[in-house]
Amino acid sequence: MKAYLLDAYGKGRGLRLADVSEPAIGPDDVLIEIHAAGVNLLDTKIRDGAFKPILPYKPPVILGHDVAGLVAGVGAHVTRFQIGDAVYARPRDGRIGTFAEFIAVDQADVARKPANLSMQEAASIPLVGLTAWQVLVEQAKVAPGQKVLIHAGSGGVGTFAIQLARHLGAHVATTAGTANLGLVRDLGAEIVVDYRKQDFSEELTGYDVVLNSLDARTLRKSLKVLKPGGALVSISGPPDPAFASKQGLSWIFRQAIRVLSAGIRRKAKRQGVSYAFLFMHASGEQLAAITALIESGAIRPVIDRVFPFDRLNEALAYAEAGRAKGKIVVSLISSNVAPSLVTSKRAGAPTATPKLRPATLPSKVVR
Fold it and tell me: Where is the Enoyl reductase (ER) domain (predicted)?
């Protein structure tokens, strides 16, 4: 199969398209023929080597954390899926690799694709959807009537988190640039702070939850908007001791993380609020709950651009530039035709995929 390989860590390093062996299927695995894959800043950070202490992948390695496609094979213990099912997933850490034609994913990480989304739209959801869910539902336990501030509302996580917080009944504020104010209001933000002209820490007060995805300065200033008992959850760091313990990191790394996060934890404690770092985890069960929200119309995907698979390195560079509104996707198979299933020669596999509706993406298709 074709796949993009990271041959060695390096900032801005291009991935190499190569022919590699198709992944083996374990007893609990689902083999997915990939139709589309999401592109995330996490991919660029892993490529650059920023996550080597936490995610020590050994090159050559296939990157990519979001997938939508068709089930092409199943392991002996798989009961939830069958060949031909349309699915999506965020493969668990240690088993990523969606920048390829196929990937084997543990069935626990997989969910059926929302019926009202194209493959491209579905591929934009898993990582950002699970991140927002785990911050707002699992960690902060957002309740109706609470006030939630979501930073970078026009980004991938932000566009999803605004919609989820509104669905949970929260009053939502967000920060965004001048050009994106209309977008975030349309997604449900009731208060929008133009970070180019306003200081959010002077405009907002009495918030229950802040979701931070920005820099250390924004993180510190976010403490000012929280009321006593509030929660500051960051997906951009610094990691905290609870995360280090959960990841099973060595004693040296645990101590280093304790020191790195000591300042923000101390300031949070003085203000009577909590600080937590969240590094999202794969969950097919949570994705299934997200599917239900998407099919009900409560949440819609926001895609900036769709790149063809042979321009993946351009897609990564575009993601790294930080200008995207919503998500960036690479497409392996066009969404407005009925492609033949690459795996149709396998025993028991169907000869063709179901027809997919033409994409109605709020995006630019890069050709």
Answer: 12-330
User: Looking at the structure, do residues 164 and 259 belong to the same domain, yes or no?
Assistant: yes
At residue 22, φ and ψ (nearest 5 deg) are: -65, 140
Question: Do the Cβ atoms of 284 and 111 come closer than 8 Å?
Answer: yes
pLDDT tens, position by position, 11-28: 999 999 999 999 999 999
Which whole-number Å values give the CA distances from 283 to 79, 106, 114, in the listed order?
Answer: 17, 10, 16
Is the pLDDT assigned to residue 365 strictly greater than 70?
no
Counted domains in the chain? 2
Q: What confidence score (pLDDT) does residue 11 get?
A: 93
Tokens of 341: 């299933």
- Concatenated DSSP letters of 95-117: S---SBSEEEEEGGGEEEPPTTS
Same domain, 133 and 264: yes
Segment 309-331 shows an average pLDDT of 96
Positive or negative: CA dihedral 109, 114, 119, 123: negative
CA distance 142 to 121: 26
